Amino acid sequence: MVGGAGGVIVEVEAYHHTDPAAHSYIGMTERNAVMFGPPGFAYVYRSYGIHWCLNFVCEAEGSASAVLIRAIEPVAGIAAMRRRRGKDLASPDDPALCSGPGKLCQAMGVSIKHNGLALDRPPFELRARASVPEIVVGPRIGITKAVDEPWRYGLKGSRFLSRPFPKR
DNA sequence: CTCTCGATTATCT
DNA sequence: GATAATCGAGAGC
Predict the structure, then answer these.
(1) Quick one: pLDDT band at residue A115, thresholds 50, 70, 90?
(2) For residues A55 and A73, what is the distance between their CA atoms, to the nearest angstrom?
(3) Strand C: which positions are within 7 A of a protein CB?
(4) pLDDT value, residue A59
């Protein structure tokens, strides 16, 4: 979680430098430089000029890989997140609060200030899951290249996914 | 409920 | 100047 607000990650997408849709595909730029650095850091960028997206830099043979956080299940700081979203969400656990890259970043107040920060120091707090949940895999969403690559991972049956996964 | 389309701005070519 | 790993509103079924 981030800065006292956050929740359980329920959906992610994998990217690495051989992926045409990844920012690290073309090569290192000023923006994605953190992806080429050591793992365990946050990579934050702007999408369509108005949304923030949060990634975790991962270790994958030094190949500039990262995981995009697509959705979380709100657990802490829900009131603060609702305030930041500026929406009148009917139910306290409304999936619309964090069911998407842009939404969860807005909810947790993630911005360019968090780019390149370590995930094991404030305001970040990364904790391991108590047990291994059931995971499903599916095609990725919201990109224009290599959409069919099955690199989207989600928590099976979660109501907080940005979109439901296909049956398998 | 599903699908289409416009908004908005840092970054890249 | 063109592009984008999205969101949300609004039209059409």
Answers:
(1) very high
(2) 16
(3) 3-8
(4) 78
